[in-house]
Amino acid sequence: MSETPSASTGGRIEVKTTTCYMCACRCGIRVTLRDGEVRYIQGNPEHPLNKGVMCAKGASGIMKQYSPARLTKPLRRKKGAERGDGQFEEISWDEAFDTIEERLAHIRATDPKKFALFTGRDQMQALTGLFAKNYGTPNYAAHGGFCSVNMAAGMIYTIGGSFWEFGGPDLERSKLFIMIGTAEDHHSNPMKIELSKFKRNGGRFISINPVRTGYSAIADEWIPIRPGTDGALLLAISQEILKTGLYDRDFLINYSNAAELVNMDPNSPEYGMFVRFEVPPEEGCFDPQNKLWWDRTLNKPISTHTPGADPYLLGKEFKLDDGTPVKTSFQLLKERLDQYTPEWAAGVTGIPAETIRRLAHEMGITARDEKIELPIPWIDTWGNEHQSVTGNPVSFHAMRGLAAHSNGFQTIRALGVLMSILGTIDRPGGFRHKAPFPRPIPPCPKTPTGPEDVQPNTPLNGMPLGWPADPDDLFVDDDGNPVRIDKGFSWEYPLSVHGLMHNAITNAWRGDPYKIDTLMLFMANMAWNSSMNTDKIRMMLNDKDETGEYKIPFIIVADAFQSETVAFADLVLPDTTYLERHDVMSMLDRPISEFDGPVDSVRVPVVPPTGDCKPFQEVLIELGSRLKLPPFVNADGSRKYRNYPEFITKFETAPGSGIGFLAGWRGKGGEKSMRGEPNPSQWEMYAKNNCVYHHHLPRSYQYMRNWNQGYLQWAQANGMTRYAEPINLHIYSEVLQKFRLAAQGKTVGRQPPAHLRARVETFFDPLPFYHEPIESQLTDKHKYPLNAVTQRPMAMYHSWDSQNAWLRQIHTYNFLYIHPRTAQAAGIEDGGWMWVESMHGKVRCMARYSEATEPGTVWTWNAIGKASGAWNLTPQANEANQGFLLNHVISEELPAHDAGEHVSNSDPVTGQAGWYDVRVRVYPAGADEEKQTFPHYKPVKPAPGTPKRRKWQNYFAGLFTQKGDA
Amino acid sequence: MTQLALVIDLNVCVGCHACVTSCKEWNTSGVSGPMFDDAPYGKDPTGTFFNRVQTYEIGCFPNTETLHFPKSCLHCEEAPCVPVCPTGASHKRDQDGIVLVDYDKCIGCKYCSWACPYGAREFDEHQKVMKKCTLCYDRIYNQDFPESERKPACVLSCPTSARLFGDVHDPESDVSVAIRERGGYQLMPEWGTKPANHYLPRRKTRKQIHAEDLVRVDNPLSKEDIRRETSKDITLDDWLM
Amino acid sequence: MHPAFSVIFLTTLIGVGQGMFLAVFTGESYAAVHLLPGQDSSAFYALGTAVALAFMVLGLFAAVFHLGKPSYFITRAWRGITQWRTSWLSRELIMLPLTMFLVFLYAVFHYFGWGKDLAVPPTLVLGSITTAAVFGLFLATGMIYASLKFIREWYCSLTVINYVLLGGASGFTLAAAFSAYQAPELVTFYAIWAMIITAAGLVTRGASLIRNARIKPIATMQSAIGVRHTHIQQKSMGMMGGSYNTREYFHHKTRAFLKSVKWIFLVLAFAAPLALLALGQGGNVELLLAAFGVQYVGLLFERWFFFAQANHPQNLYYQTV
Ligand SMILES: Nc1nc2c(c(=O)[nH]1)N[C@H]1C(S)=C(S)[C@@H](COP(=O)(O)OP(=O)(O)OC[C@H]3O[C@@H](n4cnc5c(=O)[nH]c(N)nc54)[C@H](O)[C@@H]3O)O[C@H]1N2
Ligand SMILES: Nc1nc2c(c(=O)[nH]1)N[C@H]1C(S)=C(S)[C@@H](COP(=O)(O)OP(=O)(O)OC[C@H]3O[C@@H](n4cnc5c(=O)[nH]c(N)nc54)[C@H](O)[C@@H]3O)O[C@H]1N2
Ligand code: SF4
Ligand code: SF4
Ligand code: SF4
Ligand code: SF4
Ligand code: SF4
Ligand SMILES: [Mo]
After folding, report:
1. In a designed cystine with A356, which of A342, A771, C5, C141 is the match (CB 3.0 to 4.6 A)?
2. Do the beta carbons of residue C128 and residue C121 sit within 8 Å?
3. Subunits adjacent to chain A (3 or more Cβ pairs under 8 Å)
4. Which residues touch A45 (CB under 8 Å, ≥6 apart)?
5. What is the pLDDT averaged over residues A666-676?
6. Architecture in CATH of C5-226+235-317
7. Which of A1, A807, A810 to mutate to test the interface with C (most CBs of C within 10 A)?
8. Which of C130, C206, C212, C194 is nearest to C162 (CA)?
9. Are C126 and C120 in contact (CB under 8 A)?
10. Chain B nearest C-alpha distance from A686 (Å)
11. Domains, chain B, ordered by start
12. ipTM of this predicted complex?
């Protein structure tokens, strides 16, 4: 070996750029190939998202590409084999397409809702949604309902944007950063980049989490909290901020509905609604500027934003000329908060009252005293010119620690309100939006509103998912019963803007509200980690009725790997990996925008497909063409697009709209952006430019976008929003009040069925409030004293990385982490076998003591445990024997209670799965018990077409597939 | 004399393992590879890694610190793993202080690994030679790469830039400045191995709040119409005539 | 440490060989000054040395298995002699064949009776040189371990002394048994020396046991990761299926197991051979052979324990094995 070797040890070297998809963060990568094999995947330094850095998963992409779990052939369940056994025979794509076409064409011509399409951790909802809508089925959703819809809805219904792909903390300028209930999140690499810069610049980082791992590890202060109680904490902090006058008064007055007057006449049908000085037909989804303030100097009502007006934020009940009593919504907030003292919250959260006060003071004082002023002139929507942009450098980030609770929507509303009263929305150092956000509150798209909107051979009359603004937007029949299989947009979960995928299988199995015929799952491991009550779900997937017919007659699974779910399929469609296909991270979907402007990106193939893999995108284009769904065929019914890349470049949202999937290099020669005619060479241009398009907004459009005239007009002109109206923050939510009024029987429109009136009335509170998670309310907490939660390991993505030879060495199995005191009280040893049991089920697992765990909480890394034989692991693999899945103890439905018998274990507002509400007890496993996880499943055999599993391997690019074998 | 090294900032390391797998992917197909994986899809998978990240908990609830702790060869200046090697396979380079194993000379006796107190060497049980972090010497001098990429794979990949790379003998280098200014320390200094790699400790940022911060004349509450409740209690005012 | 059988056999076998040579040569030296009756050159000195050499060859054979690949013995092992300036292992690699060669020469001279009539027989000169080599080899072998200052259990002169005494004891015990066949009049001489060396070995090995039981670690969890706190616990080692670090440096046995091995070797390597030697010193071949056999097995246990007891500081980083 020479002392200064050169890069390679020979071979033909090529370097290509594309976009990572080892997780949904979507970093730019550079892939070096040697003799056609992947030699090195590195972060692309020229990519705005990750700026050259990587994560453990991204850097292990090689082991995914050459994984033995890869499906390479279309498969059909063997005749006579049970679902779940994973016994398949290879078929051709022609056979597969013919089978699906025949089935789906028949369903579409008869009753399109009998076809259900649910997708998991994919990022192509623009295409799958388009397919479902044009097919005409209402039964479409992606993973959002079990993922983080509370975060999306809670924030978007409050500030018009959210964390996650939609916005985030401006850590570059922030001074105080509070991270709540976040382990890893989608913005993995950017968050890490920013967090370290923030710390190096002397920022103060506080983490609120029952567990201290990952990001929380480097926090300056860790505040352990009891799960499900953040609402109490946030409300108490807000109380203290209001009480001490640490809120940003000017910001609230100008940019939120805090000073607007609310009708307080309990007998009025407008009770709890803002008073309007004129009532034009309120069309669409923007907030008309027709509300009132109470002016301090004139001491009378005045229309909002009247130049020179100086309204009260707080104060007595005022009386309008017609005698209507009114209060500012901020006063209502204050009255609400009065009950939430730090002392009260201390009892709920386990956080000492002084700490809560101190947090409030730190936030308020930092926001007030460390103001940032940037010399950026801008104009607001009321025409006022501002010489600078100012900001209060307190920022937050929160994720599923808040979202995955059945009180999450209101808790997140409370956070949105706290961020607003601190004056930190879309300002430097605070929260910043990412295009296409902010959007109107609520955003414009709506679902259909009744069963008549679902018709044979007809596209759905509305979007499959949307943003209800009032009860008339619900998707229910005349009796108020759901139209969707998952009961989304029904009175049970009115604002379920992402659907309730976690209930689809149970409902379809039970035939409630109806039976379906074909269930198509794409990139979702529903027989394992994305189902609650997994053991039972596996039974349902295989359950037959009296006639011997499957209760869910036909299941199609499109996956790239031999997941647990694949074993339950009747038909398996092998997808490509991210290195083998074209893909878009589109503005029509969830792009990767930055604070300074829209960003979208693409994937281009860097290696050819393995075996007979076919990109699922191509499958949808093919099926859409065969089924003659309007977007995919010409007027004469002939196929419109040769393939997916052509579809992407040519498709426009409306004929001639100039808006398509990709915003960069539009126009005939690629000279336009955001809007412009289709460009046949768009793909090449992306490929030449690191596969990413970054549109930098002028500096004056980068802040205060809810109210920034320039920005809003630009957004409207570029088809990002329908209106260029101000998007005022909803401290007080009229949308919620409308549902409450309906539940109270005070409206003329739709009203909830009797058994749900109390539920809707309670949870649709226009002001944030705290309630115990519903499952806790229904649990005997003496019997099940502990909370059980999961969290994301940084080096694993859900269930799909146990096939990865490198990553699985880091997380080979999982422990249940437990505080030593809690464990010892139960007689559980460190490393010992134990049971964790909820009222729904129990799991045998191994314990690991942890001082970084709140004593009332137990937790584990999510989805490390695997079913035996899945992912082409040997039956002896640790994942299936020592690893466990907590999902078996989490139920998809609540015990029967007032709201009904089969109510989803979800947030009553949004239908967000209440993963982290489960209560458990723990006890040691008996000495005579098997030292193996329970439940344990019969091993599945490797599916036909999966590559050979090596006993050991030496990966060396260029030689591996030729001679890597042991 | 140059001594190249890594300086690892524990203040920002979040334990993501990016450095672990980037190291493996670069090196397994590089001059120091391959790096085997045993039972890659079976029970107790194991393999060669040049760099690993461990996790420690320090203190008791609620005052617990969770520490992520990456460790690879520290390229000791007084590397005990070098003189013990009978074949000269284990050597420390004069030009840059990198400690390397020449696979062509190594007889796999493992003695060098016994002499390393840090557990930084890993024996390749298939190739039967000793392996360890090479400081990516096949990257850092590589003329095929742009200057900005002539860095170890783990350094390039680290999202928190917790891994600094440079010459610890050059007092002006980033790494020396960081060691000097941030209290950089060595692992187990008591052995006199003088590890070239250093670690930067955790730092805490706190906020001092003064009582007067809460009482300010510009308190927005002063602008509000907050009626004080009249006292229902009997006061002196009610008594005095 | 993980006790590797190749090294256990290597060190014990060459120890026997070295000790046996020393015994044979002691016999010759004593005879030279007429303290002992002289013996037949080929039947006793040559054959006895051959037996010693045989043990050393077996030891070398075991050593080959300690290399990564046996083929390295042919292709690369020669490189092992290049680092004699710094590496005790290199020195051992030099001393072992050198000693074996000298032992071989010594045997050949005796076998052919070369120069046996000279005033100073060449075998005496050669034997003296070889004796020096044998001690050199003992030193090299012992120092391989005793020079590793991180391994506190080994970093001590007792390590070298024990190698010498335990090798010597087993060699003299073997010599006692051997002489029962070839030179019955020397049996008592060898048996008594064997008992003396065994007893001395017991004292020094006992001393090292006592020393090791009291060792205070120099490196601590605190210095290993550079954190000053009394409560530090490792939660993850960075991998879960094991690694070289968890295989090479841990015996993966219980404390109780270790303890019983200690008592086993104390009995087998010291107490039992002492008793058997005492009983057999009259010339009872079976008893003497048994003494050797028992002692050798005892030394295998002793060597296993020697490795297992050594606590490598790298283990500080691998607490959750
Ligand atoms: N490496 C990796 N990255 C991922 C994923 C992955 O699987 N692996 N998954 C991606 C997906 S789909 C998602 S949705 C995101 C989710 O990203 P996160 O929201 O970061 O996901 P979780 O791991 O669910 O983290 C929840 C955190 O909340 C804490 N927690 C639980 N209950 C409470 C509570 O009541 N209050 C508070 N304050 N904290 C609580 C948990 O301890 C945990 O630390 O991550 C994405 N990123
Ligand atoms: N207990 C508990 N359970 C949870 C959570 C929790 O916090 N706790 N979190 C929930 C959340 S937020 C989420 S988002 C879900 C995630 O759950 P899922 O959406 O089920 O995600 P994965 O496990 O990643 O499985 C997705 C499937 O996609 C497949 N796949 C990977 N790459 C490709 C590809 O390129 N093409 C195709 N066609 N398939 C591919 C994988 O093989 C796998 O079968 O889990 C949920 N489950
Ligand atoms: S965070 Fe990691 S896995 Fe996710 S896209 Fe970026 S590099 Fe890939
Ligand atoms: S890549 Fe950086 S942040 Fe991640 S574990 Fe390694 S050193 Fe820590
Ligand atoms: S860390 Fe270990 S292997 Fe690396 S130079 Fe130091 S002693 Fe040698
Ligand atoms: S294992 Fe190789 S490098 Fe280590 S001491 Fe032996 S010969 Fe030298
Ligand atoms: S410097 Fe190179 S070899 Fe060493 S740990 Fe980093 S990536 Fe691995
Ligand atoms: Mo998710």
Report:
1. A342
2. no
3. B, C
4. A51, A52, B148, B149
5. 96
6. Up-down Bundle (1.20)
7. A810
8. C206
9. no
10. 23
11. 4-200 (3.30.70.20), 212-240 (no CATH)
12. 0.96
